[in-house]
Amino acid sequence: MNLETIIRDVPDFPKKGIIFKDITTLLQDGEAFRLALNQMLKKYLDARIDKVLGIEARGFIFAGVLAYKLGCGFVPVRKPGKLPFRTIREEYTLEYGSSALEIHEDSIKPGEKVLIVDDLLATGGTALAAVLLVEKLGGEVAGIAFLIELGFLKGRDKIAKYPVSSLITY
After folding, report:
1. What is the CATH number of the domain that holds 158?
2. Annotated catalytic residue, options 34, 56, 58, 86
3. Helical spans, DSSP H, in the chain
4. Is 13 contained in some domain?
């Protein structure tokens, strides 16, 4: 099965000139969704991951399943003001703006191996912010996994010193 053909392009979203890669078509196809998750999981089965960190919001979909399959904890990283306990924050730039991410200050213990998961690698700002949050808490980034990578935006360059995997590259 070619997962790339299942993902829908939405022109001019969220703003003119952007071609948005809509993964809802993949999520709605049980066979494609299972295949994508199994392929993402394969690389980390023997990695002894302690926590899987999911980046809001679509990263939660993949990270939660991977944490379950790996038998480890799930850590949500969210936009500011969404987490109920004390947090630390990291600001970053996107291909069409800027934002910030927060994580609970007690969600990762020093030395824990963390797999960071998101649906899309674009300019790398979001992924780098997640890496910096993990490291501020003393965690070790064991890998960064994406469903899709927009290679032409060179986001991988920002996180090049970490093991990065992407199922689909455009």
Report:
1. 3.40.50.2020
2. 58
3. 24-27, 30-42, 58-70, 125-136
4. no
